[in-house]
Amino acid sequence: MSRITTKSHLLKPLLTTTTTRTFTTTTRKMTDYKNLPTPSSCYADFCLIPVGTPTSSVSKEIALVQAVIRDSGIKHTMHSAGTTLEGSWDEVYRVIGQAHTIVHQSGILRVQSSLRTGSRTDKVQSAEDKVKKVEDILAAGKQ
Q1: Smallest Cα–Cα separation from 110: which of 45, 61, 64?
Q2: For the Thiamine-binding protein domain, which residue ranges apply (predicted)?
Q3: Is 117 in contact with 41 (CB distance < 8 Å)?
Q4: Do 102 and 69 contact (CB within 8 A), yes or no?
Q5: How many Cβ atoms are within 10 Å of 79's Cβ, its own excluded?
Q6: CB pairs under 8 A, 24+ apart, for 126-132?
Q7: Strand boundaries in the chain, DSSP class E
Q8: CA–CA separation, 27 vs 41, rounded Å?
């Protein structure tokens, strides 16, 4: 009976899969999850929603959030439905947490955020790079 051992590309340090002709088993290696690092870079598109503002407008609260983001020095792009942050995982999520804190400090008791986060390990790619790639395809008529 032949035995094939494969290791998952992304979970290489965590899983070992052994396959025989009759069954497959996966065993988890002992890993110190408390010391598992976060990605060195990521982007997060987030929309912060202050809940319970006195009026339907949230522009004052969003201006507070944008001041925190601007003063953090993190690369960012504000758009009509939120903000895209780019940096290390820890830096991005620290700024999002600070955004929540500044809105709470303004008297808003409840804050919700909707997030989409991405990270890559194969190459460095900014938000502008991603947009430019699509614009180049459209300009070349390859859509």
Answers
A1: 61
A2: 44-135
A3: no
A4: no
A5: 9
A6: 126/43, 126/75, 126/86, 127/43, 127/77, 127/84, 127/86
A7: 4-6, 15-19, 24-28, 42-51, 75-79, 82-87, 110-118
A8: 29
Torsion sign across C-alpha atoms 34, 15, 39, 95: negative
pTM: 0.74
Helix 59-72 and helix 89-105, axial crossing angle in degrees, nearest 10:
140
What are the tens digits of pLDDT across the range 74-86? Answer: 999 999 999 999 9
Domain with CATH 3.30.70.930 in the chain: 42-118
Q: Distance from CA of residue 110 to its chain's centroid? A: 22
In CATH terms, is domain 42-118 a member of 3.30.70.930? Answer: yes
Cα angle 75-81-82, degrees, rounded to a multiple of 5: 30
52: left (phi over 0), alpha (psi -120 to 50) or beta: left
CA distances from 60 to 55, 81, 84, 96, 99 (A): 11, 15, 19, 17, 13
How many CA atoms are closer than 13 Å to the CA of 121, on its beta-carbon side?
5
> Residue 7 pLDDT > 60, yes or no?
no
